[in-house]
Design goal:
Number of helices: 11
Structural class: alpha/beta
Low-confidence stretches: none
CATH superfamily of the largest domain: Thiolase/Chalcone synthase
Largest sheet: 5 strands, mixed
Distance between the termini: 11 Å
Helix content: 25-40%
Oligomer: single chain
Shape: globular
Amino acid sequence: MSSYLPEKKLTNADLEKIVDTTDEWIRSRTGISERRMTTPEEAASDLGTKAALKALQDAGITPAEVDLIIVPTATPDMLFPSTACIIQNNIGAKNAAAFDISAGCTGFIYALAVANQFVATGVYDTVLVVATETLTKILDWENRNTCVLFGDGAGVAIVRPVMEGKGFLSFELGAEGAGGDLLKLPAGGSRKPATMETVQNKEHFVYMAGNDVFKFAVKIMGETAVRALEKAGLTKEDVDYLVPHQANNRIIDSAVKRLGLSPEKVYVNLDKYGNMSSASIPVALDEAVRAGCIKKGDLVVLVGFGAGLTWGSCVIRWAM
């Protein structure tokens, strides 16, 4: 694991100066105190490249050993080529195939499921999952309901074979396309190509029906985690540690209650980084491991939800 966060911090006090909001309003409704923000020159591939190089160095793996790069992101450098191909070139992984995944905030878990299949079937030995996001570039800074929520960052996982009984024990993925309009970037694709009108209407910024997404998240976070445990033949009593998508404290609390976990078994860094979409889970997981919260042999559950609408969870017997 590794992660990379831009240096610039955007605090709630900073936001008070540019939009009609307060520190108390943001913290009481979300739990966020600050978030990281890229410079105008930085793109998603830049954050992902730095995190990927650090992960390879820490693991003692050369770029030439990487067989596949998967990049879950909602903020690619451009529609094509894929951000994965840009990162492949940046790190010199000349032997790696590369592609992006679009599953919103659930992207990291979706990408892990894909990586797991390639490794488990013996097709590839070393897969690099690079979740990287620059969400502050697609926010309407006059909309306090969305601009206070999101931040930038990247998290990386290297997926390789482990002993039987270790590593990924189960996945549970899902989607409800009927809810796609609840969280979207309306323009910029083939449905609504960029025009003067779409720019003026702010259709290139994140749109979210906050209350509806909240209700969906509260319901699905606990449900998908329980189903993933059932697939692994385990129960919530077996869980040693939970790393949830960092979207909102109240949503996280609902999942924790559903699983009956104590706060000491849950990693939360939402206050420092806000919602980093697909990067939120890997950044939190990386920090939890480096802080010694997750140890060899622990049963770890990752769970998230996102645009699509999508959701996903996985159960891991930590092998390192």
